[in-house]
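Pyridoxamine 5'-phosphate oxidase family protein
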Amino acid sequence: MAEIEPVAELNEGFSEPGVAPRPWSDVVDVLTRPEMFWLSTVRRDGRPHVTPLPAIWLHGSLHFCVGPDEQKAKNLEHDARCVLTTGTNRLRSGLDVVVEGLAARVTGRERIRELAALWDERLDWPFEPTEDGFRGADGRFALVFGVAPTKILAFGKAPYSQTRYRFPIVTSGTK
């Protein structure tokens, strides 16, 4: 499945003079390379919940897994809106990326199998794929979610730049 390249918009108010939007390939590299992301969800009472977890970029979506009884799973059941962030803790180098979107359950043995293979390959974290998620070696079950971005922000450092990537809304036609 080919990824849709988003429209890049440089925010000149938060960028150094003369810089251009970061290439989309730089953002994809940041989404593909790291092992850890920070997931932000919202509790029923409106309080934020933030936690680190591994995630995998595949087919234009960021994927992660959580136990069904974890706070983040409960939050996503109530409100699918979430944010995942990654990057560097350095002030004068690197690229920080913020992914906004809706988390949707990933099911189906083929896609789950593909993701389980990537978890093992990239993170050395083996899972048994099931129809509805991952099963760990300890027997515990994990739900798998995918976040197709609605917006991505990329914060470049040295030179400083802020780029917003907007994704086209894809609609399916009817016959």
